[in-house]
Amino acid sequence: MATESTRADILDTAERLFSQQGFAATSVRDITTAAGVNVAAVNYHFGGKEDLLRGVTDRVVEPLNERRFMLLDALLNVSEAPTVAQLAEAFVRPDIEALQRLSDRAPHAARFLGRIYSDQTPWIRDMTRAQFIEVGRRFGPLLAAALPELSTSELEWRVEQMVAVVVHTFATWPEGGMSDQEASSLIHRLTGMFAAALQASPTKEVEPNTNSR
Q1: What's the whole-model pTM score?
Q2: Could you give the CA distance from residue 90 to residue 68 in angstroms, rounded to a whole number?
Q3: How far is CA 145 from CA 3, 152, 198, in A?
Q4: DSSP reduced 3-state for 203
Q5: In the prediction, which pLDDT does 123 show?
Q6: Cα distance between residue 144 and residue 35, in whole Å
Q7: Is 42 exposed, middle or buried (0-12, 13-18, 19+ CB in 10 A)?
Q8: In this predicted structure, what is the pLDDT of residue 103?
């Protein structure tokens, strides 16, 4: 029990400091001092700072993806061809609901995700992308089937913009959290916006202007 408690304390502290300072600016010493543990405890539980970041990220993201798949499976039990709006809601609802439930941790967890998913450090970008491989594998073909007028590149670009909005929502999560009504309203608004953006008419490629003055 003490070992699990120490591990949770390290994760909580790392999440808070990473959210406030960013990964690069936060040292293992910062984390151990704030958590009241020694460096050996971090090495024992995580092996180092990079693995600690993975631990903090996985703790938040894995339950969100599990919830996404549960919602998606529920949709597929009703219809083999969910609508774009249904898919958009299944994607975004777990994020908002989970953060709304996290109580005191919500601002740190949300801003941590906002920072990490905006970080362009190659290994961090690879880590975060890997966490969503299965999400893309399951949601991608269903979105493509629902939006046959979009090319693969156009659909991927629109999904990337959708994710960017979610990341911005994380980064700007209110310090005082959200009520159930506020969270429900946000889910509704995001779902409507994403569905409309995904279903917009295909954009035409703009030819580069090669005329010189």
Answers
A1: 0.86
A2: 6
A3: 48, 11, 12
A4: coil
A5: 95
A6: 46
A7: buried
A8: 62
Look at residue 51 in the predicted model and tell me its pLDDT: 95
| Identity of residue 164 | A
pLDDT of residue 205: 65
* Contact in structure between 15 and 111 (CB atoms under 8 Å): no
Burial (Cβ within 10 Å: 0-12, 13-18, ≥19) of residue 156:
middle
Dist. CA 146–CA 72, nearest whole Å? 14
Q: What is the pLDDT of residues 79-117, one digit of tens each?
A: 999 999 999 999 999 999 988 887 667 788 889 999 999
Residue 152, Cβ neighbours under 10 Å: how many?
9
Q: Are 32 and 39 in contact (CB under 8 A)?
A: yes
Name every residue whose Cβ is closer than 8 Å to that of residue 24 and which is 6 or more positions away in sequence: 121
